[in-house]
Each structure stands twice: as structure tokens, then as C-alpha cells.
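User: Hey, quick favor. My workstation is busy. Could you predict this chain's structure for me?
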Amino acid sequence: MQDLFSVRDKVVLVTGGGQGIGHMITQGFVEAGAKTYISSRKADVVEKVAADMSKVGTCIAIPADLGTEAGCKALADDIASREDKLHVLVNNAGNNWGAPLDEYPDAAFDRVFALNVKGVFHLTKFLRPLLRKAASDDDPARVINIGSIDGIKAPFLDTYAYSSSKAAVLHMTRVLARKFAAERITVNAIAPGPFESKMMHETLERFGDAIVGQCPLGRIGRWEDMAGTTIFLSSRAGSYLTGAVIPVDGGISTDHA
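Assistant: No problem, here it is.
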């Protein structure tokens, strides 16, 4: 049974792996024995996280700007220069932008969609050859896209570009799952609810009690919740899932009609 959930010695890339949900996922993979690469636009952040995580396992930092196609290709090329295969790609890097409806700028959509949607597409496309090399009938390669429950149900905050982008990520997951199935690459998405992160910090400070009050399980997410779901999808236990969207939200999305 332990082998069923093992990711030991797999090669993993977690984008946006230096903070928030990305950091939680990175910690899970490193502690579970995977060789874990992390990327972020902020070199100092990922290098510090990699140094800290390397006390536990193998964690390697590669700074990258995934908001452009060229940046995605550069990261893919860097991984290819170091590894001959990639077992798991976690597309977690993302941007948010909040502003009142009447003041919401066009630039918000450009910036948020460039990273949250186009970045997921381009990086997956460029890493497809390495994923194919890792894939087998018994243990497919994995792409795991980090969406949000804001892509499932309408958010109460003014995050028009963000919530729209996450809905796009969830549908892209289904499209890519169908495309990649014959290559033995599964594509699934996790839709997190409220977790303590830099992106969510101000929201939890202002509305934390109300958010917890809306959650059927009565709490915000813990790092183990996110790490455990990602590791499940990456292990043999999750090898028959593709095109799935898993809400990790304590039941908040259950009121979505």
C-alpha cells in the first residue's frame, strides 16, 4: 500500500514553488522523496526555499518568468538540459488582480491571462517531450494544473480576470487530458479553496471569519491538504484519473448549482 502512494525518485517541476500553495506542494514532494525543481520569477525566493528544502531532500531552484512564451521555453530548455524525463509537472504559478468593476483595467486581463492561462499552455507544450519519455501504461506522466474554486463558483471579491482565468484553466485541463491520453500523460486540476498564502493573506485578514463560516468543514486549508492531493494524483493510486477537477476547499463549492 505504501508503494501505491509513492512518488519517490520521480522528477517533478512545481512552478510558483517558492510561496503559498506552491510551497506546500513543494514541501510534500521533497519530503516524499521526489527530485523537485521549483521555479519563480523571484530568484531570491526560490533559491532560499530550495536551500531550506535541501536539508530534507532534493530541491533545485530555477528562476523563470512564465508570463511569456519565451520564458516558458527557457524553463523547459533548462529542465531538458538537466533531465532526460519529467514525471510530474505542477502548473501552479499565477497572478491575481482586484479592483472595482468600473475601475477594472484592460491591463489586468493581459497580465493575469498571460501567466495563469497562456503560461500553463506554453509550458505544458514545451515540456511534453520530457513527459512522454517518463510515461508508461502502468504509471503515466502527470500534469497537474492548480485552478481555484473561483473558477467553479462566482467569487464575492472583485477579481474578474483571476476568476475567469481559473475557469479557463479548468476547461483547458479537460481539453489537454483528451489530447494527451494516448501518450499516457494524465492532466488533472486541483481547485483550492482558502489557504494561508501571500495572495490570500489580506482576504483572510479582512474576511477570515466569514470564509470559515461558509466552509462546511469549518476551517481553512492546511499544507497537508494540498500536498496530499497532489501526491495522490502523482502516484500510482491516481494513475487512472485524467480530466478531473478536484476541489480542495472543505466543501465550499458544494453550493454551486
